[in-house]
TrEMBL record, chain B:
It comes from Azonexus hydrophilus. Keywords: Signal. This is YfiR family protein. It holds the Pfam family DUF4154. The keyword Signal applies. It comes from the Bacteria. Residues 1-22 form the signal peptide. InterPro entries: YfiR/HmsC-like.
Length: 663, 172
């Protein structure tokens, strides 16, 4: 196997299962000796084997391919991921985010999902958030596939992998195989994008690629309301122009040869803020938030002992920079948050004992710099400066034991220690029953954690927020039952039934004495849900997948969770049109009612997105025309406890044009 | 139904099943065999070259299965299996197989090949509509294929009537 071998470090079981599926049996059968008529009568056993391997993954795993990203015209990860069951996207006119299995509290950083690029974590050392919107440092055109493993992954991945792991597998030089240039335009906000990339696998085995991209958007003129932002707590409203603009840039480079690969992903995004978040001055120009991420890793991946031992070793470095300007009484306040981290991981996968797939790993990370500051330029010096550092280490072990023909058990455990969260254990237990060649049942239990981030724990500016050094880690316990069934005609069905309980959720409270906000361990949250999904591929290239998710998430006493739609419906259709090279991608999304922090209910809504793409009309050129929110539906998403607004109106219909050129 | 007819039916069924009987082919063993047959039933416009280059573009899904075809006699010539990680390596190919992992680069491959007499083969759903001459497709655990005759003519390739008869669909 060439190609993907060196990239997917994070998800060993998953990636290896797929990699191992191709070169199957050792016996060589001379299929070429048979006539074509006979060959077309053969019933393949290997196809089922592939499915079986994938279905043995101890979670409900999903993959979104580059082809789908292209067919639906997705430009950000949240657009793509929210096509999956149990994922809902939110936007607060600053950041795009996702909620998983009902949890996506307004304003939370994406701390309960681990986001990684080729196995290298993006979740930073300060806010601990994974980026998933425009601030994600890799251009989506460079994504070969998105792997989403739902449910708790803490037993292998540790910190943050509470409700899922998103691993982005990037393209490599062989996948680019030359140069690419792309330009895109969106009418809403006059958003322009451009990208130039080049990659190749050379004769000597060196695979190299690089890419640079940029985005500029004037932003929209918006009717905004700022309840309580006026003198004496009066309401302010107005039409704001030029406060929604955005500029991004991204850089990616990767070089690999044999077992070695090195890569760097870097992105910077500045988004102007029309919402006056953090209770800043309403209608003031020049308020913005800016994020920069750079992550790099050097990876070694090699098989030993007749492919019975796979060794993965990697060292990584990450750097995150945030700054925001917020005006208070006309004075621009500069807030900063910065972190640097580095570390290493060693992972061994051993398949030499019959029936056992053993995984051992150790990970070490040092957060060499954590800095938070706030500066009011009218006072002398920096008003607030909080520095920190830290380290965390984890060891993990997992045994996938096929103890009978149709039965596999999974026992896994990860032990983590950090100077913030102390010691944590994240166990995983699973039982997989291959009930029939096409039917798999899985029973799973898992526990996962996240320790408080430095912002929640340490940030203290004495005027708005107090620190809480004694803040506990969050813990989630999840029980899940998954049934997978494949029909011969290219149809696959999945049902997933789950329960999770989140303890010690870290939430923003108000201190009764000082009246300032402070992060504290909140109430227990209980959830139960069911996800039903079906997918079918036709030989003609038509692809259809759909899902219905029900998720019931509540605080004790039954109070409903905020920004947690109970019902989600998804339908995704790719339809090749009879005219040469033309394809239609149609998406339908239903999102149930969402509750806001103030207790209001935002109406349920349904959206349709359409994307028409053509390849090969002009030599070297692919074109696409997309219409998002085709029927111009009006809908709203909840605001956070750092916003004046209780909810935000979302965008109406938008037209996107994109042109890709190969050279 | 008479006993004799039943017996005859059973006999026919067993005869039909003989060459196929439970060999436990893996998917890509089967696809390698079908690929060989595709080549055998295709004619190239110029006199058959002594060595037909069969190129696997992108990540190779066959592994060892395709090496069984290395040096194999076909008509008056023999097959040579080559793995190509770049379109630049496709210049001398008579057959190009584009695996599912590389199908995203199909437009680039087709642009590179132009109208040259190259038999393009893939196993991606919708491949024939995107310009693949012979596209394998899996349904109900069995392999079928679509033939894009217009594309074959365009490339000056001849597809035998047998091939067209066995195809699940022929794009004219």
């Amino acid at each position: 196997m060439m190609g993907r071998k060196s990239s997917g470090a994070l998800l060993p079981a998953f990636v290896l299962a797929i990699a191992a599926a191709a070169p199957a049996s050792a016996q060589t059968v001379d299929a070429a000796a048979l006539s074509l008529e006979d060959l077309l009568e053969v019933t393949v056993t290997g196809a089922a084997k592939y499915a079986q391997k994938q279905s043995q993954v101890a979670a409900a795993a999903s993959v979104i391919t580059r082809d789908e990203i292209k067919a639906f015209g997705w430009r950000t990860l949240d657009e793509a991921l929210s096509s999956l069951p149990g994922i809902h996207a939110s936007y607060d006119r600053q950041y795009g985010s996702i909620g998983t299995r009902g949890i996506g509290l307004p304003g939370d950083y994406l701390t309960r999902v681990l986001v990684a690029v080729n196995g290298n974590r993006i979740n930073d050392a300060l806010y601990d958030g994974g980026s998933i919107g425009r601030d994600f440092p890799v251009d989506i055109d460079l994504v070969e596939r998105i792997e989403f493993i739902g449910g708790p992954g803490g037993a292998v991945y540790g910190q943050n992998a509470m409700f899922g792991v998103v691993n982005i597998i990037t393209r490599d030089g062989a996948s680019l195989d030359g140069g690419e240039a792309a330009v895109a335009w969106k009418n809403r906000g006059n958003q322009r994008e451009a990208r130039i990339s080049w990659g190749r696998r050379l004769e000597n085995g060196v695979d190299a690629m690089f890419s640079v991209s940029g985005l500029r958007a004037d932003g929209q003129t918006l009717n905004m309301a700022y309840p309580g932002a006026g003198p004496g707590g009066s309401d302010v409203a107005g039409r704001v122009a030029g406060q929604d603009s955005e500029r991004d840039r991204e850089f990616f480079a990767r070089v690999a040869r044999g077992a070695w690969s090195a890569e760097v992903a870097s992105g910077k995004r500045r988004k102007d803020d029309p919402t006056a978040s953090f209770f800043a001055d309403a209608l003031a120009d020049g308020q913005y938030q800016r994020d920069a991420y750079s992550v790099m890793q050097l990876q070694y991946r090699q098989s030993y002992l007749n492919d019975q031992l796979e060794v993965l070793a990697r060292v990584f470095y990450g750097r995150q920079r945030y700054d925001g300007i917020f005006h208070y009484s006309g004075v621009p306040n500069l807030a900063k948050g910065e972190s640097d981290w580095h570390g290493g991981e060693l992972r061994l996968l051993h398949t030499g004992i019959a029936g056992h797939k053993l995984l051992f790993g150790a990970e070490w990370q040092r957060n060499s710099r954590i800095m938070q500051s706030n500066d009011d330029p009218t006072t002398v010096g920096i008003d607030t400066l909080i520095r920190g550092d830290g380290r965390r280490q984890g060891v993990y072990f997992q045994d996938e034991w096929q103890f009978a023909d149709a039965w596999t058990s999974i026992i896994g455990m990860r032990a983590d220690h950090s100077d913030v969260g102390g010691s944590q254990l994240s166990p995983r237990l699973g039982l997989i029953w291959q009930a029939a060649p096409a039917t798999t049942l899985k029973m799973l239990y898992g526990r996962a954690h996240r320790e408080p981030n430095a912002y929640e724990r340490d940030y203290d500016d004495t005027v708005s927020q107090l620190a809480n050094p004694g803040l506990d880690s969050e813990t989630v316990d999840t029980y899940e039952l998954i049934a997978d069934h494949r029909l011969g005609n290219g149809t696959s069905l999945r049902a997933s039934l789950y329960r999770w309980r989140l303890k010690d959720i870290i939430t923003l409270n108000t201190d009764a004495v000082s009246g300032l906000t402070q992060y504290r361990s909140g109430e227990r949250i209980d959830a139960r849900g069911v996800e039903l999904s079906a997918a079918r591929h036709w030989p003609s290239g038509v692809r259809l997948r759909g899902s219905v998710s029900f998720q019931d998430v509540a605080y004790p006493g039954g109070r409903e969770l905020e920004n947690s739609p109970r019902w989600l419906g998804r339908l995704n259709l790719i339809y090749p049109l009879p005219w040469h090279g033309l394809r239609l991608g149609y998406e339908y999304r239903f999102e149930g009612r969402r509750r806001t922090l103030a207790g209001a209910n935002l109406d349920a809504y349904s959206l349709s997105h359409l994307n028409l793409s053509a390849e090969g009309w002009i030599r070297g050129v692919d074109l696409s025309l997309g219409v998002r929110n085709l029927f111009d539906r009006r809908y709203r998403h909840p605001g956070a406890d750092s916003n004046w607004q209780d909810s935000f109106t979302q965008d109406g219909r938008a037209v996107l044009l994109k042109m890709d050129y190969r050279f | 139904m008479s006993r004799l007819r039943l017996l005859l039916l059973a006999l026919c069924a067993s005869l039909l099943a003989t060459p196929v009987a439970g060999q436990g082919f893996t998917e890509y063993q089967l696809k390698a065999g079908v690929l060989y047959n595709f080549i055998a039933f295709t004619t190239w416009p110029e006199a058959a070259p002594p060595v037909l280059n069969v190129c696997i573009y992108g990540p190779d899904p066959f592994g060892r299965e395709i090496d069984a075809l290395q040096g194999r006699k076909i008509g008056s010539g023999s097959l040579a299996i080559r793995r190509a990680s770049s379109v630049d390596a496709l210049a001398a190919c008579h057959v190009v197989f584009i695996g599912q992992a590389a199908i995203g680069n199909l437009p680039r491959v087709l642009e590179h090949l132009g109208n040259r007499p190259v038999l393009t083969v893939a196993d991606a759903p919708g491949g024939s509509a995107r310009g693949i001459v012979l596209n394998m497709e899996m349904a109900d655990g069995r392999l079928g294929f679509r033939a894009n005759l217009a594309e074959a003519r365009n490339r000056g390739l001849g597809l035998s009537s047998k091939l067209l008869r066995l195809a699940s669909e022929v794009v004219q």
